[in-house]
# Entry
Amino acid sequence: QVQLVESGGGLVQAGGSLRLSCAASGSSLSINSMGWYRQAPGKQRDLVARITSGGSTDYADSVKGRFAISRDNAKNTVYLQMNSLKPEDTAVYYCNAVGLRIGILYNAWGQGTQVSVSS
# Structure
């Protein structure tokens, strides 16, 4: 079983910053990519950013230049530094990890953390 534990969400004013963290745990765990998705009320869950084990990154156009994803492979942890936050960044942010465990492909999700940006 793969578990993802997120932290770092909260309420911030527009222009402010937040840092999200997500730690993955599980025996015999091999992680290929880790990332963050977000879902605003009434909308679908969309990719925010993701990073592979080799360090390749991918960002949604709406966050390029403001958000930065990083990863500590030794700790199976991914971070999302969010700067210059806007009210439209308000959403529940979900951590995601994809990889292999005991030879079986998994696609795991965290419980979500709320990010609220006031204008």
About this structure: The longest strand covers residues 29-39.
